[in-house]
Each structure stands twice: as C-alpha cells, then as structure tokens.
Design a protein that fits this description.
The structure is a single chain. This protein is mostly helical. Helix content is 64%, strand content 0%. α2 packs across α3.
Length: 73
C-alpha cells in the first residue's frame, strides 16, 4: 500500500495550499512565523516531505485565509 504522502490527493492538497499561500502574498518564512514554526516545516510540507495532521491543516488554512473545506473538496 502506497503511503498517503505520495498520493495524488496529497499532491493536489499541497498544491492548493501553496497556491493559497502565494495568493495571500505570504512567503514560507512569513507563514512559518504566523504558525509559530520553523520555515523548514513549511518547506517540508510544500515539498511533500512532511504530512499535516488535521489540526495542523486547519491552522495552516486559517493562516493563509483559506477555507479548509474547500481544500478537502
């Protein structure tokens, strides 16, 4: 069974998160600062080296002014 981090669905979700971050005019470093995390965490998420859990996903969406339900759909 393939790990979900390498699934097409995860790729679409990460691409959506990145596009929303860019639309919010946030750099990875700026988003990391809002989240209270290291910029390398955001970088690893966007390069699909790290998955988000549900709570992290919601916080990420709130930080980039995106609706989590839109990302799930």
């Amino acid at each position: 069974m393939q790990k979900t981090i390498f699934s097409n669905e995860n790729t679409k979700l990460v691409d959506w998160l990145k596009s929303k971050r860019l639309a919010s005019n946030l750099s990875m470093r700026a988003l990391a600062e809002i989240l209270g995390k290291s910029h390398s965490i955001v970088e690893r998420i966007e390069h699909q080296d790290r998955r988000l859990d549900v709570c992290e996903f919601v916080a990420y969406c709130e930080a980039i002014n995106a609706d989590p339900l839109e990302g799930i759909e």
